[in-house]
Amino acid sequence: MPLRSPLARYSSTVLFVVAAALGCTSDDVTAPPAAEEGAMTVDASSGWVYVSLADSAVVQPTPSPSGSSDWDIAFNATSVMLNGGLAGPGGVTGACLCQNAGASSAEILAMTPDSELDAFENLNAVPGGTTFVAEELVTAVRDWFAGAGATATADPNAVYLVRLADSTSFAKVHVVQLQNPSSGAAGVVTLEYAVQADSTAAFGPVETIDVDLTSGAQQVDLNSGSAAASVAGWDLELEGFTIRLNGGASGSGDAAAAVATESFDDISTAVTFGSAYRADSFTGIFGDAPWYRYNLAGDNRISPTFDVYLLRRGSVTYAVQIVNYYSATDDPRRISFRFRRIGG
After folding, report:
1. How far apart are CA 154 and CA 151, in angstroms?
2. Per-domain residue ranges of the chain
3. What's the average pLDDT block by block, 10 residues per block, for the chain (344 residues)?
4. pTM as predicted
C-alpha cells in the first residue's frame, strides 16, 4: 500500500479551518491542531537538522539546541538525537518496537518503504510493557581512570588520537596522574600530550599540563597549552570525571577522538582514518537500537531496518519510521522518514 500524500493526510485539517473561518467570528477561530501524521526528507549532510513533529517542519532551535524546546528529533548523517534527557529540555523519550531485529541481511535488503508500511500504519497504540528511555551523553574520551571517587587513579594506557577543534591540527593525549580526587571530581588532572600542526607535520615536543577541577570545569587549548574556566578555541573540557571534546554534542568545533592501539611513546602520528574518529554524542534509543545496517551487500551502503520507533513528549506519542538514507539521485545523508500520532 503506497504512503498517502501529505495533501490527503491534511485535508481534514484544512476543511476544519475553512469551516471555522466561515462560521465563526475572528475571536472564535483557534489555531489548527498539531500535525497528526506526515512524511519528510531532510538534508543531514552538513550538520544537525532539527525537526518539530507537531509542526511537520525543520526548525532552528533558539537560543541553542540544548536550550530550546522547539524541536523533537534531530538528524546528522546516520545519527539521531531526541530533545530530552541530557540533550535538551523537551522531555522527549524514545522506544523501539524493533519488529525487524531478527531479520536476515537478505531480508533487510529486500525491504522497501511500501513493503514495510503496514507495520507502521497498523500501530495505533503503545504496546503494553514498552519502556521509554532518555538521551545520555556518550563521550569519545572515556575509561581514562580506574576506581571511583577519592580512590580513583589515572590509566596512562588509555591513549587517544585527537583531531583538534580547528580541524587542522592533531594530538596524542593521555591522563598520567590524578591528585586529590574526591567523590565529585578528579582533582588535579595531569595530561601528557604532543601536537601535530597539521596532518603532514611531525609531533612537537611532549608537554604536560595540570588541570585543576576542584573549583569546577576547565577548558584546555592543546595548541597553546592553556587551561581556564573559559578558553576560546578549546579542545577538551574537563569536569568532575568527564572529558568532553569541542565537537559533536559537546561543542561547535570539529574535535573528535580515536582510541590508540599503540603506547603513547610509540605513536608516530595522531592522524588516522576519518571514520575512526568519534565525536561526543547523545544517545538514547537510536544508540541502543540503530535504525540501519551497514554494508550488507558489500557496497558500503546504509540500509534502513524499517523498525518502528516511538517518541513520547508529555501526553503525545508519535510512531516514527526511517525509510531511506539516499535522495532520488542517490545523494547520501538525505533522511526520509514518516510519522504519525498514536494513542497512549
Report:
1. 10
2. 1-33, 35-135+284-342, 139-279
3. 38 33 41 74 92 96 90 94 94 98 98 98 96 95 97 98 97 98 97 98 98 96 97 96 93 93 98 92 92 95 98 97 97 97 88
4. 0.72
